[in-house]
Amino acid sequence: MNGNNVDIDWESARLANQANWEDRVPVHEEAYGLDTFDDPAHLSDVVRDDLVAMKSFLPSGSLSGLDLCHLQCHIGTDTVSLARAGATVTGVDFSPSALRAAAQLAARLGIDATWVETDVLDARAAVDGVFDVVYTSIGTITWLSDLDRWAAQIVALLRPGGMFFIRDGHPALYALDENAAELTTRYSYFATGHAQQWDDDSTYVGDGRLAHTRTYEWPHPLSEILGALLRAGLRLIHFDEGRTLPWRFSDRMVEVPGGYAWPDAERDKLPCTYTIIARRD
């Protein structure tokens, strides 16, 4: 049954997740609309939204001239968008196929980027240099078991004064039954010490089927996410919660400008995303 709590070691879970994400790459290359990036002004919708949130916290109001490390970059659509916004970018991911696709996209577009294959929990050891911005966004940290280790990588990658940015699906959203006829909690909001096991041959975009269907995710409440960042030594400078998502979490969601949202009568009842901006002093 999907969402069951299971005991599994990190390495076994990581290998299963990696195989699943390897399968997603060709599906996402077809479904992400990569041809739209042939327009030199085109940015991904995710980055367009994130730039608005980041703007007032950046030294000159933009990424221009800044070194940026994008954790869990997947096939690089957001990474090349960040480069087009002015940053010198390094993309990090654990999927070799995703990084090959990202490198091919960047090369086709004439964008200079560095790509590093590593688990995000080992990023500091694998990535050269330090950065003005460490960035991660949408569909990321539920795949990680240890947020203290994650936060330690972020701090170690940042220059003093550097900024960390994350926007992701809200843990209250992930606790919902996506198939219920109304907002109904089904899964754990709080961390339980166990992974949630899922079996699904589809992905969040595209029609292709996946061969490696089993994945493992971990629930992380906001208190754990914020606590990990604060314990690592980051200073919180911005927090927000949003009503829209860039993907359709539930079939009941309706398309709205900027993504998907719950029907009007439910839209103010539960957040869909959270945004955290923190600084290394």
TrEMBL record:
<dbReference type="Pfam" id="PF08242">
    <property type="entry name" value="Methyltransf_12"/>
</dbReference>
<protein>
    <submittedName>
        <fullName>Class I SAM-dependent methyltransferase</fullName>
    </submittedName>
</protein>
<keyword id="KW-0808">Transferase</keyword>
<feature type="domain" description="Methyltransferase type 12">
    <location>
        <begin position="71"/>
        <end position="164"/>
    </location>
</feature>
<dbReference type="GO" id="GO:0008168">
    <property type="term" value="F:methyltransferase activity"/>
</dbReference>
<keyword id="KW-0489">Methyltransferase</keyword>
<dbReference type="InterPro" id="IPR029063">
    <property type="entry name" value="SAM-dependent_MTases_sf"/>
</dbReference>
<dbReference type="GO" id="GO:0032259">
    <property type="term" value="P:methylation"/>
</dbReference>
<dbReference type="InterPro" id="IPR013217">
    <property type="entry name" value="Methyltransf_12"/>
</dbReference>
